[in-house]
Write a structure and sequence with these properties.
There is one protein chain. The chain has about 260 residues and is α/β, with parallel strands linked by helices. Helices cover about 25% and strands about 20% of the residues. It contains eight helices and eleven strands. The chain is elongated and about 60 Å long. The termini are far apart.
Length: about 260
């Protein structure tokens, strides 16, 4: 425990899941923290890098409670840091990629708390690559975009912005996958465009489900969170670059009710 002085906040990226994909700096900083505030996607193996006497606080979010939990996280950061503790805010992937890390950074600064970012390997790039799907490939894809699918039916999102991006990577897209695919097709993306969900990317239980965008729109994809969705012709490179991992074709699945 630090003396009665303001502590420090580390925003730490935990990477896509495999503990060996943590950065060297992330491992070192975790050993310095008095308190670890960790998310749902942070494994026990990653938490083992923390000091044995560090306080571990689970702050994972659940559907419908995001705002309540986020406010509680703000309060925990302020309370522990102002008590002189070194706080590690441990997030899956990179803290500033759809993780609200920048908001926590801003709140800490408002309280006069020193903040340091420890970037993490984003699942948006690492998970497709590890599966054998490059986001860019000469003659196939010259651009990619990363979006979040925390959207609901009736959303006013301008989906046309994503119609002409060569490769589209979707995070947090499992729950609203059919609506997402329907919206993208309506905005101009091809229904026969290849797509792949990668469940538990970088982990031993990784599972890849290949389909078309239309197959997702029709509800023929059985997939569980966490999963990264890749849409684009680069999905066809999967069989060339990584034929080893088991791949399940969506055509074998029954339509969802």
């Amino acid at each position: 425990m630090r003396p009665e002085t303001t502590g420090k906040l580390y925003l730490i990226g935990a990477g896509p899941g495999d503990p060996e994909l943590l950065t060297v700096k992330a491992v070192r900083v975790l050993r310095e923290c008095d308190v670890i505030l960790y998310d749902r996607l942070v494994s026990r193996e990653i938490l083992k890098y923390a000091r044995s006497d560090a306080e571990r606080v689970y702050v994972g979010k659940h559907q419908g409670e995001q705002e309540i939990t986020q406010q509680a996280i703000f309060e925990l950061i302020a309370r522990h840091s102002l008590a002189g503790r070194t706080v590690g805010r441990l997030k899956g992937g990179d803290p500033l990629v759809f993780g609200r890390g920048a908001e926590e950074w801003a709140v800490a600064l408002e309280h006069g708390i020193e903040v340091e970012l420890i970037p993490g390997i984003s699942s948006a790039i690492a998970v497709p690559g590890l599966a054998g799907i490059p986001l860019t490939f000469r003659g196939v894809s010259q651009s990619f975009a990363v979006i979040t699918a925390h959207c609901r039916e009736g959303s006013t999102e301008d989906w046309s912005r994503y119609a002409n991006v060569d490769t589209l990577v979707v995070l947090m897209g499992v729950a609203n996958r059919a609506f997402l695919a329907q919206s993208l097709i309506a905005a101009g993306r091809r229904g026969d465009e290849p797509a792949a969900f990668i469940e538990n990317g970088s982990l031993p239980g990784q599972r890849i489900v290949v389909s078309s965008l239309a197959g997702i729109a029709e509800g023929r994809i059985d997939v569980c969170s966490p999963a990264v969705l890749v849409i684009g012709d680069v999905v066809n490179l999967l069989s060339r670059l990584a034929p080893g991992p088991p791949v399940q074709s969506a055509q074998a699945l029954e339509p969802r009710p």
